[in-house]
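Weekly structure sync - notes
Attendees: PM, LS, DV (DV joined late)
Agenda: review two folding runs queued last week.

Item 1: First target. Sequence and structure tokens pasted below for the record.
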Amino acid sequence: MDHCIIHALRIDGRAPFSRIAEVLGVSTQTVARRYGRLSSELSLRVVGVVNPRQPSAGKWILRLTASPNTAQNVAQSLARRDDTAWVRLMSGGTEICFVMNSAAHHTLLFREIPRVASIAEVSAHRLLHTYLGGPTAWQGHTAALTDGQQEQLRRTCDAVDTADEPKFRASLPQADWHLLAALQRNGRISYTDLAAETGQSSSTITRRLAALQAGGMLTFDVEISAEVYGVTTQALLWMSVAPSHLNQVANTLIQHKELAFLASTTGPTNLVALVLCRTPSELHEYLAHRLSALDSIRMLETSPVQRTLKTCSPFLQSAQHPQV
């Protein structure tokens, strides 16, 4: 039942408990009670994800190597920034890997990082194309509901008025950015609370939210403790693939149930993936058998994830569980 609720929220992050209950054939109180427990015990969060449609809105993956006694503090500082996402401690706790947008990474690389004496190495990799990623990327998150239940949720979710769909420019009205910021902190915040935070009426909020979703500016993701799915072992895989076989290898990899993210990058490697496994032995089997069958992968570096400090949502100091 918990997995069904999480799957439903991945289809529609703001679906009312009553609609989820109807699809699952249980009471609204049951859904509300289980959602509350998942939130308090396993750090379940529904968050808004902003997707600005601008050529300059590209992203970079940065890798830093810091001294063992300072890496944790550096990672915490990066996680608190508004312009970072997916901040992870890697490889025994001395490597930090995170995502940053193009507009901010220059300042960090050339002004701020050089002032930190404990940072020994830095590399930056531009994300060129995402093959796998987003709210429903990992198959483990979306295996609980039947096809009929998923279709029932999507029909209701898609039934929105797109007449007010915005034509996105380099910037949105300030009122929309206030709305998006509130949804990034809490994707299920009520319309009444959104109206109080943004100073707009509930009817305006409802219309703008539907328009932002219809235009692709806003999506919703679900953050949840990895232990819900039995995941104890995560790693980033940095792969070098012959350019002529890049798309072929990527299209094969996105079928692997172990992968939650896959993108092409700049740098000495040209593919990066996030792999989720139940045990180190399962990761070994994946590397030794499934990946080894792909001859076009010429080089592979495996970076174990020690801890995830921040995912796609704003940093919350109270978050204590590793998330996927």
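Item 2: Second target, run right after the first with the same settings.
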Amino acid sequence: MAGTLRVAMIGYGFMGAAHSQAWRTAPRVFDLPRDVEMAVIVGRNQEAVADAAAKWGWQESATDWRDIVTRDDIDIVDIVTPGHSHHEIAIAALKAGKHVLCEKPLANSGEDADAMAEAARESSAKAMLGFTYRRVPALTRARDLIAEGKVGNVQQVRAAYRQDWLVDPEAPLSWRLQKDLAGHGALGDIGAHAIDLVQFLTGLSVTKVSGVIDTIVKERPVETERVGIAGKGGDEKAPVTVDDVAIFTGRLENGALAAFEATRFATGRKNELSVEISGDKGAIAFNLESLNELHVYDLTADELGQGFTRVLVTEPGHPYLEGWWPTGHMLGYEHAFSHQVKDFVDAIANDTIPTPTFDDGVQVQRVLDAVEASSDDDSRWVQI
């Protein structure tokens, strides 16, 4: 086995916790071709990032990512910061010869995304984008079944990501609700997942879109100083500068229509990422709130045997299951992040191209920007 890969993670919020769990767990569950060490975690607040390092098992903490990404003892840079900072960190790390894992969406603009993809192509290091839901075993299995022709020719797609954590108008203004930090709102934060999944599952790119975005609550209470807004909270409010909901239609490259929805105002829906692929031989449906299950319909079966069949994706031979539990013992949200680490380390060790690539991220960014442009122009069709 070659030398140990030492990881630096930039950021320590929600995704920092998920990625930390993955870096800690993957080497213990899977037989990785390289050893991994959680070397350093970076954040602006010295006390908070030190606490995160102690809690999640990082060897040290730091407050300046620029010092870290050029260190000789760092091999991988994992970026889990808000989208506005992805561009600068990723390009600096790639130029320093570090492998880069970057959370989605790739960037806050098409220009930044293009620059990141160019840096990845020019670097000898590996770069991978964190569309983690691709590595939910049921979704990887769905991709394989579709590639094998289980649904036949894809004719129609429905994909939605619905949450409700912003229904309360007094929910505070976080960085995810500020365009300069997040780029997009529900469209980019969760809609990007729906777009990527449709393209991943079908193997077909979205070629044009027509849609509308809306901001339902126009201003919210200021949260804390960390979101970069002056003020101390209380009765003070500031404008929401991103969308709360996006609904759009896309045309796939084979001509099929796809319907998309991304919303953080679907009352009662906590984390419902659903996708259904319909073809001339069958259909496959998935819902993240039942993430171990696929529902498969075989149109070629005898009519007495037709109907959606529930398939539990926990069997030996199903994707990634070799590292986990006996048949029927469920996996959860965190496990896909461990699968992401496994695939990234495998790509580094085997000198293969990890997916999704930064170029894949550029494609999704172009769709996001086109939806926004369509909404600004009375929902006209916009070519990708």
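Discussion on item 2: Residues 225-233 have pLDDT under 50 and may be disordered.
Action: LS to circulate a short write-up before next sync.
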